[in-house]
């Protein structure tokens, strides 16, 4: 089908099927994460998920056989543009879509793909990611959670940390050391298991923003059936690296999806006002804003070019670290400028004024952007070795 | 990470091959030693390859391949520090002549496109680029037009066959074609820090033929605005080439230089600075390519994008050359290494057609703050 025809069909279909309530700006609470315990905010949200899942458009790039839309790169771009045109909300967001799905497509067995991928596409299972440990942060491959082969099962014991929404997730994809005699990087396997399994417990961590999106997750002799390993034994690090690449592309590219991009300059004028020459009455902030606006245009152009490059069939590889580094550092600056522009008004923390300090909470939350998914320093180390080929 | 069409890929490949073989940094050093800022020999070569007419439409005798292609050539010129009238003549004058039209403009566009003539743009009157601040004036009736004023940083002005000069007639902007040999023109040709030519030109009661008024009023505003936009993006592309060359030499040095018994590239303090520079260069490449594409598409955001590209490249160029010298250490301060040459060219290109502050200010005003 010609792309123009696809566009007009898509436009008509979205017009007919996207409920009006799903065409308004969304806050963090409006995200549809799916899963067993998810409570829809409205019948429209539930309907929107169903019709999009029926089309395969919750995961437009995946093959149709696994619940996807089977769209080409150009068709995906058209769909995204047409959804943006009417401000259609994403019907479903999840770690299953962003991370586990791509890993299964690459490394999963046919049976695993047929079982897990359609569940992700329909938002039936909410996944969380068991990567970091108290002693294994930037040095992720140093993880110590054990998976002992008991014959019938891997018996998993250990502790994970920074597990996003572990307390609300149905299943976990988890890095576990199953080959204790192997080297650091080759002793790890990639296991999938039910968070309802006996021996799993979670404890939310309260952050500086006041929210608790992350948990500590404990495993005490959890029995994991042996067919719930993805790839071979000891292949976990390879899968983890592949998956982190996707995570970094996602974090780098989707700052706008995670944070409302309010108009910084408008906010600043509203809060501070203009001087008699029509310039913002804060020369230092104004200069910083100027540099930021240029840098934002620069990063947007880079994302656009990178997107076209990938749609043309090229792999990004280690360069996903470049997007992650640039995108998250930029977002941190955006959030900092926003609170500076807001002045004392944005110090309000509780109550109803200023949306209960949402700007300030977003600012605090953004500090994690350059830590999660690999710190900025880890990104720079990856680039210096994998791309610049610097020694050591 | 840039996707090029077939024509653009051909241009990029031939620019790389030709300039590295015939007009490399070694050739630049020889010109510098000889005090030669004109490099006359390269003109006919660039003319024969069609590069001098790269943005001049085919019907005026050019190649008409556009600004994205021109940017690829400029980037390679920057990498090799090649001295040529590409920027002044092919891009600035080429765009101005193509934008104004008329018999005189067509005649000079055709000569320019084959490398027979070199033209330079005279816009600046002060140490900083302020193209709207024009004291140079045209007065008198149609049969007795007189030009008075002073222009500075006229790149390649020292050997240009004609100057394209901005002047005010009352409140109207005029673009004038001026023969630097004409009575009343005093030209001071200067060697700049990057061993390229720029002139300061004084006009005293210079007679201007009516036919040499290329454009005035609205038409002149439009032509100048397109010319400066094109110039900004292509200057940024040349500066990108300079910065990438400085960065590449620096990465090489980090891989080979040993101190404390190890390659200095093993030190994380240097690795992270090198990788940060790499990221900055990667994203500014995309911005410059986007700005050049906007010129080719004649799109509405061309003004903003070319200014953003010039402003960002000024900061990244400085980062690349300063980091280059610092990471080389003492040897980076020597004339024997190329780092200093890159730093000087970078400085000159940053000032030419406006620095980061100038263009960032415009963007801020545009946003209403």
Automatic annotation (TrEMBL), chain A:
The keyword Oxidoreductase applies. Residues 234-387 form the Acyl-CoA dehydrogenase/oxidase C-terminal domain. It comes from the Bacteria. Residues 128-222 form the Acyl-CoA oxidase/dehydrogenase middle domain. Its cofactor is FAD. Residues 46-124 form the Acyl-CoA dehydrogenase/oxidase N-terminal domain. It holds the Pfam family Acyl-CoA_dh_1. Keywords: FAD, Flavoprotein, Oxidoreductase. Belongs to the acyl-CoA dehydrogenase family. This is Acyl-CoA dehydrogenase. It comes from Shimia sagamensis.
Automatic annotation (TrEMBL), chain B:
Residues 225-365 form the Acyl-CoA dehydrogenase/oxidase C-terminal domain. Its cofactor is FAD. It comes from the Bacteria. Residues 5-115 form the Acyl-CoA dehydrogenase/oxidase N-terminal domain. Pfam families: Acyl-CoA_dh_1, Acyl-CoA_dh_N. The keyword Ion transport does not apply. Keywords: FAD, Flavoprotein, Oxidoreductase. Belongs to the acyl-CoA dehydrogenase family. This is Acyl-CoA dehydrogenase. It comes from Shimia sagamensis.
């Amino acid at each position: 089908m010609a792309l123009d025809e696809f566009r007009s069909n898509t436009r008509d279909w979205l017009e007919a099927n996207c409920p009006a309530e799903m065409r308004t700006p969304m806050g963090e609470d409006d995200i549809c994460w799916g899963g067993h315990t998810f409570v829809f905010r409205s019948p429209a949200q539930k309907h929107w998920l169903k019709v999009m899942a029926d089309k395969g458009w919750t995961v437009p790039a995946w093959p149709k056989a696994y619940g996807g839309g089977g769209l080409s790169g150009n068709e995906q771009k058209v769909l995204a543009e047409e959804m943006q045109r009417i401000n259609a909300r994403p019907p479903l967001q999840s770690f299953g879509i962003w991370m586990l799905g791509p890993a299964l497509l690459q490394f999963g067995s046919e049976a695993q793909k047929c079982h897990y991928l359609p569940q992700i596409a329909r938002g039936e299972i909410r996944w969380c990611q068991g990567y970091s440990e108290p002693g294994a942060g930037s040095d992720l491959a140093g993880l110590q959670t054990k998976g002992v082969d008991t014959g019938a099962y891997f018996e998993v014991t250990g502790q994970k940390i920074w597990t996003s929404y572990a307390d609300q997730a149905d299943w976990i994809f988890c890095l576990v050391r199953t080959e204790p005699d192997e080297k650091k990087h080759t002793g790890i396997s990639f296991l999938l298991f039910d968070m309802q399994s006996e021996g799993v417990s979670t404890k939310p961590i309260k952050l500086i923003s006041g929210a608790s999106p992350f948990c500590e997750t404990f495993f005490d002799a959890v029995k994991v059936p042996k067919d719930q390993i993805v790839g071979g034994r000891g292949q976990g690090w390879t899968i983890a690296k592949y998956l982190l690449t996707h995570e970094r592309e996602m974090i780098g590219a989707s700052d706008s999806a995670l944070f409302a991009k309010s108009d910084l300059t408008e906010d600043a004028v509203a809060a501070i006002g203009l001087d008699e020459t029509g310039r913002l009455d804060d020369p230092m902030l104004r200069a910083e804003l100027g540099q930021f606006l240029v840098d934002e245009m620069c990063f947007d152009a880079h994302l656009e070019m990178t997107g076209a490059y990938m749609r043309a069939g090229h792999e990004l590889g280690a360069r996903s670290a470049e997007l992650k580094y640039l995108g998250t550092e930029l977002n941190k600056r955006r959030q900092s400028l926003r609170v500076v522009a807001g002045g004392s008004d944005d110090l309000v923390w509780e109550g109803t004024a200023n949306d209960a300090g949402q700007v300030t909470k977003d600012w605090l939350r953004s500090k994690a952007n350059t830590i999660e998914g690999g710190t900025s320093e880890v990104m720079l180390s990856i680039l210096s070795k994998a791309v610049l080929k610097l020694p050591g | 990470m840039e996707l090029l069409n077939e024509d653009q890929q051909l241009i990029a490949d031939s620019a790389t091959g030709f300039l590295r073989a015939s007009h490399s940094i070694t050739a630049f050093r020889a010109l510098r030693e000889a005090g030669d800022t004109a490099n006359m020999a390269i003109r006919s070569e660039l003319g024969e390859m069609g590069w001098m007419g790269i943005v001049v439409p085919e019907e005026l005798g050019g190649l008409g391949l556009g600004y994205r292609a021109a940017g690829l050539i400029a980037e390679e010129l920057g990498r090799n520090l090649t001295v040529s009238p590409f920027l002044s003549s092919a891009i600035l004058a080429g765009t101005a002549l193509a934008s104004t039209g008329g018999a005189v403009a067509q005649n000079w566009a055709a000569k320019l496109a084959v490398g027979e003539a070199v033209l330079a743009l005279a816009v600046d009157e002060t140490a900083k680029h302020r193209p709207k601040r024009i004291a140079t004036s045209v007065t008198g009736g149609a049969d007795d037009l007189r030009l008075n004023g002073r222009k500075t940083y006229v790149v390649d002005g020292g050997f240009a066959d004609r100057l394209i000069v901005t002047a005010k007639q009352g409140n109207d902007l005029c673009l004038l074609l001026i023969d630097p040999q004409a009575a009343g023109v005093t030209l001071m040709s200067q060697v700049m820090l990057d061993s390229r030519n720029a002139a300061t030109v004084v006009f005293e009661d210079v007679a201007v033929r009516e036919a040499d008024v290329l454009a005035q009023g609205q038409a002149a505003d439009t032509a100048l605005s397109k010319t400066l936009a094109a110039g900004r993006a292509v200057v940024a592309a040349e500066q990108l080439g300079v910065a990438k060359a400085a960065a590449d030499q620096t990465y090489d040095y980090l891989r080979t230089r040993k101190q404390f018994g190890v390659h200095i590239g093993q030190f994380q303090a240097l690795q992270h600075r090198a990788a940060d520079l790499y990221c900055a260069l990667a994203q500014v490449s995309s911005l410059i390519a986007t700005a050049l594409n906007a010129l080719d598409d004649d799109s509405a955001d061309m003004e903003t994008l070319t200014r953003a590209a010039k402003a960002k490249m000024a900061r990244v160029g400085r980062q690349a050359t300063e980091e280059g010298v610092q990471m080389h250490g003492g040897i980076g301060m020597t004339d024997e290494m190329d780092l200093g040459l890159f730093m000087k060219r970078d400085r000159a290109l940053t000032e030419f057609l406006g620095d980061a502050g100038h263009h960032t200010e415009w963007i801020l005003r545009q946003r209403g703050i």
